[in-house]
Amino acid sequence: FFYRKVKGGNIDVHPSEKALIVQYEVEATILGEMGDPMLGERKECQKIIRLKSLNANTDITSLARKVVEECKLIHPSKLNEQKPPQYCNAAVLLEYFLPLPLFQIDEVANINDMDEYIELLYEDIPDKVRGSALILQLARNPDNLEELLLNDTALGALARVLREDWKQSVELATNIIYIFFCFSSFSQFHGLITHYKIGALCMNIIDHELKRHELWQEELSKKKKGLVVKQEQLLRVALYLLLNLAEDTRTELKMRNKNIVHMLVKALDRDNFELLILVVSFLKKLSIFMENKNDMVEMDIVEKLVKMIPCEHEDLLNITLRLLLNLSFDTGLRNKMVQVGLLPKLTALLGNENYKQIAMCVLYHISMDDRFKSMFAYTDCIPQLMKMLFECSDERIDLELISFCINLAANKRNVQLICEGNGLKMLMKRALKFKDPLLMKMIRNISQHDGPTKNLFIDYVGDLAAQISNDEEEEFVIECLGTLANLTIPDLDWELVLKEYKLVPYLKDKLKPGAAEDDLVLEVVIMIGTVSMDDSCAALLAKSGIIPALIELLNAQQEDDEFVCQIIYVFYQMVFHQATRDVIIKETQAPAYLIDLMHDKNNEIRKVCDNTLDIIAEYDEEWAKKIQSEKFRWHNSQWLEMVESRQMDESEQYLYGDDRIEPYIHEGDILERPDLFYSSDGLVASEGAMSPDFFNDYHLQNGDVVGQHSFAGSLGVDGFGQSVGILGRPATAYGLRPDEPYYYGCGSR
């Protein structure tokens, strides 16, 4: 058996035609043989009543009666027998059915008449609308709130009517929510709203209205304006109330559990600027919590926000940028921002003083990802930033601006644009004038890239070397040292630089225990490694007694992998030159330290160490035997460890048939197997390190590749008898990487 029930609902004006829209609900139920309901479904529908004959001379009373007679969805009680107006249109006809639209009440409310207004809340819908509108007049005056608070009967009646009748009238729901909104503006009244569960009701209403809007979009996509206005007013006041309540994080959590984020993101499809500002503001507040941010990711929020950048409404654009800033702390969302084309849009905003700062902060976060750095080269971002740098009148550049530039300078494509014209010259001039360590850090990043840009620094070697003294600020000296250390230029006469600017005593002095902070000492070691590529410089440094100081530093910093790796690299450079090789091998304990580090857990240290020991073994038989003996000992201990491990795993090893364990290796056996250490091409380092051709392309800290440097000219037949490459300088993070969010923390909320 099939049973259907139809229930009438609201009556609205058609937005463009002479017609009324009647809302109604159809409930269909399938009954079983015994009359019990088996399956049911409820659907909200609309019926359009077209009034083509409606004009200024129409008899409203007669027409209204005729509508009621022909449309069974409108109950006769909807009729109002008041005197009809002199003019007539569809809106007036609707007022004939519902004579009291929102806020259009001539009567002035009086707090002493509250009992009468409460009585109206127990009548039919038009009276309830009137009663709620009068109470709203009182609630809008903050002086009346305390007295209303004491009237439990009124508040209880309002909450009940809202709970039971909100679907019957948008005006009624808006009036009552507006009343509670007046209370929500004061934190001390939030308990009252929570007591009557108004927040939960608002969530249900918003959800219902959003679904209703989707239905309107399908049926009246181009004619919805009149229907949407009232709804957006309701949404605004309801969302504002919830935003006020969200001051309490526990209440906000309840909203989140009821999918407030999904509702808000859906509302971003609206066109009303005032509503969008409220929605984006709410989302911005919620976005500081990871759970809410994850909900926004699921709803593809970035795709919805991109349409608002740029937009003609300043407040909406500003709050949207701030929401994007909060979201840009997430790597995946930064990726999405680039994918949807936000990079050029944000770059265009750098020229607007109102949005420059916040747009730059979002771009700074995007620039933290190496894969996006090169994309800035295809916008007009870098010319704008250079203009800002050169026009800055203060001694110190804005932190956001210089941090952004530091990140961009870590990419080779960007550096080519930065150095166009007199770019590098202007940067050097400003950095040296104001002794700006952050600007010098940007210059240091520029100096790390091989190619034409590195050669530009030849003109500034003297200026940089002149800054290396105890008289300058330490942070500035660190960056100057780091820049010089990056200048691996073949034609650069490092010996002349060291002597003319008396750098050797300074470098040696900083290696003394406690002479300087670790960051500065590390840069000194890296600088020594760079200049030691020159044989005359290596001899000059060895003669000054720097090698024992490095060994002492190595012993003191043995737990710091960065220090260990860079000091070993200095030894590696020293053993390449005949003038310093004997000093390293015969006059210091450096080889013994290197043997101890052969099997360090750090792969970079092992690689540099093995390559250095291979060269030492080639030139000194005694050390060659010690190195081979240590390799044997290590191999043997590893084998025994593996055997013991297998024995622990096998409770009865003889049950495994022909499976056998390799016998113990005797020292004589391994020493008589040169194939473990040599190949037809020469020395082969142990532990998987490379042969004398070990010097493959090496990746620096920012992903740029250093090609092979031929060393045949200086090595010649005095080396391995063949042309080989040279090991690239180990990567250094020099404290914090420039692409870490260190210089600027965008904790905007």
Explain this structure to me?
The protein is mainly α. Among the domains are: 2-80, no CATH class; 113-258, Alpha Horseshoe (Leucine-rich Repeat Variant), CATH 1.25.10; 493-639 and 733-748, Leucine-rich Repeat Variant (Alpha Horseshoe), CATH 1.25.10. It is 57% helix and 6% strand. It has 40 helices and seven strands. The strands form three sheets. The protein has a three-stranded antiparallel beta sheet. A two-stranded antiparallel ribbon has the order 4-5. A two-stranded antiparallel ribbon has the order 6-7. It is elongated and about 120 Å long. The relative contact order is 0.04.
Task: Show the helix and strand layout.
Blueprint (H helix, E strand, L loop, with lengths): L1 E12 L5 E13 L5 E14 L9 H11 L19 H8 L16 H7 L4 H15 L5 H5 L2 H14 L4 H15 L5 H6 L2 H22 L5 H21 L3 H9 L2 H8 L5 H14 L3 H9 L2 H5 L8 H14 L3 H9 L2 H7 L7 H12 L2 H4 L7 H11 L7 H10 L3 H7 L4 H12 L2 H11 L4 H4 L5 H5 L8 H13 L7 H7 L2 H8 L7 H14 L3 H9 L2 H11 L4 H16 L1 H9 L3 H7 L6 H17 L1 H29 L17 H5 L6 E2 L2 E2 L14 E2 L5 E2 L5 H4 L34
Antiparallel strand pairs: 1-2, 2-3, 4-5, 6-7
Care to give the gist of this entry?
With 749 residues, the protein is mainly α.
